[in-house]
Specification:
Helix content is 74%, strand content 0%. The protein is mostly helical. The radius of gyration is 20 Å and the shape is globular.
């Protein structure tokens, strides 16, 4: 497929999307879901760039990030974009969930839309936690230790904590961060948007 053909298909898709009517009650506060999706795509793009330079080994992880930030052209930009966008993403997803809850948009027939959104919030949180671990500096080490201690306080949490500690390596955390969680999140997003398309945007009660 040629570049011209791809460009034409993108233009056609944009034209179709722009032609869809927007409910009159939709305002700025309904935009946090779309903003969250945009930030996820930014995370995907910046993370894909960083894959070429990061080394998931305890003795090399921080050095590879330092090399990316200081030596690679625009590496500092992609690293900081990835880092700060993750914080902003957590804020927009939480805001989206709060607004949906406030507007009571979780009620029938949109229960599955709400539950998939709660699940996506959990996945975004897991991405943030695993992302903090990857530099493997003092902040990463103590963040990991604190989370393990916290999990140990759950009912039955000691067995979960021990299993995580027994299987933990930086390489495992890396592949969970770049592959396992994103794939699960992508599947959940597809389902979420299908539910939104089926039932539409709720009106305030």
């Amino acid at each position: 497929m040629s570049a011209t053909s791809i460009a034409e298909r993108i233009k056609e898709l944009i034209r179709l999307k722009k032609g869809k009517p927007i409910p009159s009650h939709v305002n700025f506060f309904y935009c946090f879901g779309g903003l969250s999706l945009f930030l996820i795509l930014l995370q995907l793009a910046s993370g894909a760039f960083m894959l070429f330079f990061y080394t998931p080994e305890p003795g090399k992880a921080l050095e590879s990030i330092a090399y990316l930030s200081n030596e690679v052209t625009l590496g500092w930009l992609f690293r900081n974009l990835h880092r700060w966008t993750s914080t902003l993403l957590m804020a927009t997803v939480l805001s989206h969930m709060f607004i949906v809850f406030y507007l009571k948009a979780y009620q029938s027939p949109r229960q599955l839309t709400w539950l998939s959104g709660v699940f996506q919030l959990t996945m975004v949180f897991c991405l943030v936690v695993t992302g903090i671990i990857l530099p493997w500096d003092w902040r990463s080490y103590w963040s990991f230790a604190i989370w393990m201690d916290y999990i140990g306080t759950w009912a039955g949490g000691e067995s979960i904590r021990n299993a995580l500690l027994d299987s933990f390596t930086l390489n495992v955390a890396y592949f969970v961060h770049i592959l396992a969680i994103p794939l699960v999140l992508a599947a959940s997003l597809v389902f979420h948007f299908r539910m939104v398309k089926r039932y539409g945007i709720s009106e305030p009660l």
